[in-house]
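To assess whether ligand presence alters the predicted conformation, the chain was also submitted together with zinc ion. Input:
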Amino acid sequence: MRDFSQDHHWLSINTATVRKQWPLERIIDECARRGIRAISPWRDQVAALGLAQTARRLRDTGLELSGYCRGGFFPAADAAGRQAALLDNRRAIDEAKTLGAPCLVLVVGSLPGALAGKPDYTDIGRARSEVRDGIAATLAYARSVDLPLAIEPLHPMQAAERACINTLEQALDLCDELDPLDGQQALASGRTPPCLLGVALDIYHVWWDPKLQQQIARAGGHPTRNRLLAYHVCDWLTPTRDLLSDRGMMGDGVVELRKIRRWIEQAGYAGYAEVEIFSDTNWWLRPGEEVLDTCIERHRSIV
Ligand code: ZN
């Protein structure tokens, strides 16, 4: 297992973590100043700064991306809505390519309209089938530009509004169906092909899952391709007061971070640990400098 205690070489900051304090340009500068090597920005933040300007700032500061947030939200009440979602996902893929992101993170969506409080339908089976079709169509485009898609399973408490893929097993089943890893392909190309469809493992959403260790091993089980494309960390507070924006800083909750990192590294993951904290009543209220400095400290001592 990698030793994180001496430096923060493998720390990435999901820019939502300090989005209430700073615009993206400042986040980039503050991360670069602290020797943080990577971020994962959100589309609205990139749009506010401008795509070309964001790419320039990343180049100037030498920051990499550990992911791009986010695509998905495939289900819709009608065909026109589903088509609009596909076009939007294409745009997200193009932006991710422009910024040099290693993957586009997918929060797949669920009952359309539920997020706004009024679902257009209540058939979650239909939502799952629209998600499957949406990812299949988006994968075809992603393949043409060689940009991996990372499905992020969300905690089941968000199954109505944000994602009807709720466990790592469910995400991997879909990966295996839509992007089968057959050995022939790997041999024929003579090199390790990129895994075009994989998962973003966010411990906030999956820490409780009794099959977590088994499914992490499955994600890394193929000899030439790994489904683990991104790793998001924070902590689960007790009690949790808000379903979306009461995430804890690593070390302040109940998640066994070291244990889970050991599992993902045994499964071949060697990328960034990306800190992603939505925190209405705590971290979003503190100075951004304090938040980033705490992320660095906890990355070394806890992650
Ligand atoms: Zn996440």
